[in-house]
Amino acid sequence: MKTAALVSALVLSLVLASSDASAHSKSHRLRMIKPGRGCQIMVGPVPVPSGSELTECTYLKMPGKRDIAVNRVKIKVQGGSHHIHLYRPIDPTMNVTDGHEACNFALNFDVWQLVLASQNTLLNWKLPPGIAFHFRAGEQLVAQTHFVDNGLLATPEPGWAGFNLYSIPKRKVTSYAGAFFGQDRDVVVPAHSTATATTRCLFPKPVKLLALTGHYHFRGTHFTAGSWDGTSGNEIYSFTGYTEPTFTRYPPNAIPEVPGVQWTCTYDNPTDENFSFGPFTDRNEHCNMFAFYYPTEGDHEFLTCVQKEGEVTVTVRQ
Prior knowledge:
Elements: H1 2-27, E1 38-46, E2 53-61, E3 68-78, E4 81-89, E5 99-102, E6 112-118, E7 122-126, E8 131-135, E9 140-148, E10 159-168, E11 175-176, E12 178-184, E13 188-189, E14 193-215, E15 220-227, E16 235-240, E17 248-249, E18 257-269, E19 275-277, E20 284-285, E21 288-294, E22 302-308, E23 311-317
Parallel strand pairs: 8-11, 12-22, 19-20
Antiparallel strand pairs: 1-10, 2-5, 2-9, 3-7, 3-8, 3-10, 4-6, 4-9, 12-21, 13-19, 14-17, 14-18, 14-21, 15-16, 15-18, 22-23
């Protein structure tokens, strides 16, 4: 009888613990009001062990039964987010089983194309009239979430990311938007130094910039970006600090048309360590730029500029 009672008590304890964990998870779930027209994508929970960081890829399908044109984007994050990205495959027939896995390094740009990116707790962005992102019903997507619980960011509870995609009638679309991902893989920040890293690239044709934001790791102190025509350019973006980097949106009457872009990261490294390009905020550095532009060829486009071993490669994927 005593053994049976002990087993019953143990089972009850496990059930209660499981119920408490479930209730805890639900109580900390990210909450967002769904769009009246469009769709919502929710990613999480993403547990991050104390003192560490985790970049996770969550594979999912675009909700809904119809293609949509998205003129407003709301991305909300719960936790210490270093970046939140949404990608689609270059191959529109790709089909990956829903699920998630660790993916600490940048996705392969020959396989995945960036659609949306945010580094802020809340991004609420309405594009200019007539400009929209195109999403296909049921298409393969992957959300890459990078949550950190060390250094300058903290994720004491599991991380969450929510995407609200607000649609407009296709008849109102005058041009679709594309995404730009710029990456300097040569970045090096020596010990006990104030260092800079600069990348310059020319596009196959001029584009009109909708928005722009910079990206680096914990040693980064200042980010600037500007136009580039092969000889010179004008500054169009500047941010000082680390958390909540500015996501600059250009109003319809002041959209810069640029033949190319340049960006510079400034770092302060008082430690005895050298930091080079890599995915981890505590032991690597980045000098990336994300931008969004129009017009595109077709209903979506992805433009990359990668500097590696002193060479700059610009690629357009459609």
